[in-house]
Design a protein that fits this description.
The structure is a single chain. The chain is an alpha/beta fold. The protein has a single domain, classed as NAD(P)-binding Rossmann-like Domain (Rossmann fold, 3-Layer(aba) Sandwich). The chain has eleven helices and 16 strands. The strands form five sheets. A seven-stranded parallel sheet has the order 3-2-1-4-5-9-13, with helices on both faces. Strand 4, helix 3 and strand 5 form a beta-alpha-beta unit. The chain is globular. The mean pLDDT is about 95.
Length: about 375
């Protein structure tokens, strides 16, 4: 089968390309090498067996040419950042996806499957339960509460703090421009796919970890940030109190999930959570990263928080498990492989201070008053 992977030079995309090539597929990559993610241009890890096309998924002529002769598509190209350039999120993520389906329909292309990258961010804070037993879906925590150092989510019933619960695919509670654009992608893929008979799947990835994550993208998660800090001999910066819950999933488990839904017709027109199967606090994860770098650290809060961050989120992956998929790797596995890859780089600069200053300038990174 000939498969197009948009965003195929990126983190998830390049690993998916490798797996497709290993399975004997003929693969074409379409990637714009967007900065700062690809600050140094075309990465050297790209699979030489895959055809590479430089271009933007929002350009009609480029995308139409890339779709020529293709049987299946992994649409993984996306824009993600903290920047308040709201229109770009929708232009790249939502409009790019709409254009993909528009061209498939207009040119009557015989596409057998489209897999679209969504995000756990669509769930927002996810599902919580009040002390009185009521299920709620919280919005953003108030700025005054965070500034005062009160991080847990208060029950709207005034009876204490809520307790998080795993969120299944029915949970839709996007709270920022990235999450909103990703939910748009899901809707485009599932509903237009069904209407026009184009088998389609949307994948809500949790925090994906492993080698090839960009060093230069401020959006990328704790594995990159903590690993870089320890690599340069510094303690990792812990936001809030470090007790916030996160869901980490290994890149190879994500690729396994991608191929599973690509090859299984039971996945058609469905949305799937792709998570690690259990929750970890940020403090627990910091200890895991420390051990990978030979350091027994004792995480301590930095006195900073990122406004707009989720307090607790963990995905219920039962639906994907029903297809025979299972997360097989642990966060320790992910960090060990990332650390090995990081040590092999010979041109890495200490960019963490620059990333922090960027977030401060955007008023994302703020200090607790209390």
């Amino acid at each position: 089968m000939r498969v197009l992977v948009t965003g195929g030079a990126g983190f998830i995309g390049s690993h998916t390309v490798d797996a497709l090539v290993a399975r004997g597929h003929d693969v074409r990559i379409l990637d714009s090498l967007e900065q700062p993610v690809h600050l140094r241009g075309r990465p050297d890890y790209l699979n030489p067996a895959a055809e590479f096309v430089l271009g933007d998924v929002t350009d009609r002529a480029t995308l139409r040419a890339a779709l020529h002769g293709v049987d299946g598509v992994f649409h993984l190209a996306a824009y993600q950042d903290y920047l308040p350039d709201f229109s770009k999120f929708f232009r790249v993520n939502a409009v790019g996806t709409a254009l993909l389906y528009e061209l498939v329909v207009a040119d009557a292309l015989p596409i057998q499957k489209i897999v679209v990258a969504s995000s756990q961010a669509v769930c927002g804070e996810g599902r919580h339960r009040t002390p009185g037993g009521r299920v709620v879906y919280p919005g953003l925590r108030p700025e005054a509460q965070l500034a005062a150092g009160r991080f847990e989510i208060a029950s709207p019933d005034g009876d204490g703090e809520t307790v998080w619960e795993p969120s299944d695919e029915s949970v839709v509670n996007p709270q920022n421009q990235y999450a909103l654009s990703k939910h748009s992608q899901e809707q485009i893929a599932i509903h237009l796919g069904r209407r026009y008979g184009i088998p389609s799947v949307a994948m809500r990835y949790s925090i994906v970890q492993g080698p090839r994550q960009s060093f230069f993208n401020a959006y990328s998660g704790a594995c990159r940030v903590f690993s870089l800090a320890l690599h340069f001999g510094r303690d990792p910066v812990i936001y809030e109190d470090g007790q916030q819950v996160r869901d980490f999933v290994n890149i190879h488990d994500v690729v396994d999930a991608n191929l599973r839904v690509f090859e299984d017709a039971r996945a058609d027109y469905e949305v799937f959570n792709v998570g690690g199967g259990r929750a970890w606090t940020v403090n627990e994860f910091a200890v895991i990263v420390g051990r990978a770098f030979g350091s027994e650290i004792a995480p301590k809060p930095s006195g900073l928080y990122r406004f707009g961050d989720t307090r607790h989120i963990c995905s219920d992956v039962s639906k994907l498990r029903d297809l025979g998929w299972e997360p097989k790797r642990s966060p320790a596995d992910s960090v060990a492989e990332y650390a090995e890859w990081l040590r092999a780089q010979d041109d890495i600069e200490d960019i963490l201070a620059h990333a922090d200053e960027t977030m401060k300038s955007l008023n994302v990174l703020r200090r607790v008053d209390a």
